[in-house]
Design brief:
Shape: globular
Bound molecules: BIS(adenosine)-5'-pentaphosphate
Helix content: 40-55%
Strand order of the largest sheet: 2-3-1-4-7
């Protein structure tokens, strides 16, 4: 299965990606995470990307296209993958089409997680993540069991992303509406048929997850994926 998780900053793409990755045993490719790893490693790409990310701007198309092109050729993507945060512009979507054509692959679904802007700011400014394993929490909506401590790896000291301050979030939302939202139309008019599965992203993460499974025609299985147990 090859899925794009589409939605504005804070829609819950990363939160749902963890569940879908485990359920379908597919690779999770987050351009945000891949870029943050470059920033942390201090590479020249990371230095250029980090400055743009800190302002809430998109990094150049060729940079993320190069990262994804390299990544989808790895063995763990052979059984399918989930793209989180890519594509984000029409040129990126066209580049993805070329990559897929080259490998005789196709997309199955573009899951569009829909959340009103007012809720997004609250979600993002309350987000905390584990610097050790990357698990994501929310101080109000998905708090860790022990304050400031990761449920998954017990690391102490959860971190707020540099681009999660209110001012930067507004810039990211503005970029989403201007540059990324048109992709929904692009994938709605995809040949031979629309790939867009719109899902209400409000309510609890478990409810959103169930709606996603329903939208992509998967069984809403009784078993609870391990990631959900950890987060609940
Ligand atoms: P990226 O890391 O991709 O950020 P984003 O798309 O802005 O998305 P977020 O990670 O902020 O949100 P999310 O939808 O994953 O939400 P989450 O699950 O964490 O990109 C960062 C930057 O990198 C970009 O601004 C850009 O500069 C650059 N970049 C990346 N890709 C690029 C590309 N393709 N082209 C160019 N530049 C690129 O949830 C958010 C919070 O809400 C969490 O605290 C979570 O616990 C909570 N939450 C989740 N679900 C719920 C729920 N149902 N109810 C209540 N709270 C919830």
């Amino acid at each position: 299965m090859r899925i794009i998780l589409f939605g504005p900053p804070g829609a819950g793409k990363g939160t749902q990606a963890v569940r879908l990755r485990e359920r379908f045993q597919i690779a999770h490719l987050s351009t945000g995470d891949l870029l943050r790893a470059e920033v942390a490693a201090g590479t020249s790409l990371g230095k250029e990307a980090g400055a743009l990310m800190a302002q809430g701007s998109l990094v150049p198309d060729e940079m993320v296209v190069g990262i994804i092109e390299h990544r989808i050729e790895k063995d763990d993507c052979k059984g399918g993958f989930l793209l989180d945060g890519f594509p984000r512009t029409i040129p990126q979507a066209k580049a993805l089409d070329s990559m897929l054509d080259k490998h005789a692959l196709s997309l199955d679904h573009v899951v569009s997680i829909e959340v009103p802007d007012e809720a997004l700011l609250e979600r993002i400014t309350g987000r905390r993540s584990c610097p050790n394993c990357g698990a994501v929490f929310h101080i109000q909506f998905m708090p860790p069991k022990v304050e400031d401590t990761c449920d998954a790896c017990a690391h102490q000291g959860l971190h707020q992303r540099d681009d999660d301050k209110a001012e930067t979030v507004r810039a990211r939302l503005e970029k989403f509406h201007r540059e990324t939202a048109p992709l929904k139309d692009f994938y709605s008019h995809y040949e031979p048929e629309s790939l867009v599965r719109s899902v209400d992203g409000t309510g609890k993460p478990d409810a959103v997850y169930a709606r996603i499974l329903d939208a992509i025609g998967a069984d809403v299985a009784d078993e609870t994926p391990p990631a959900m147990k950890a987060a609940n």
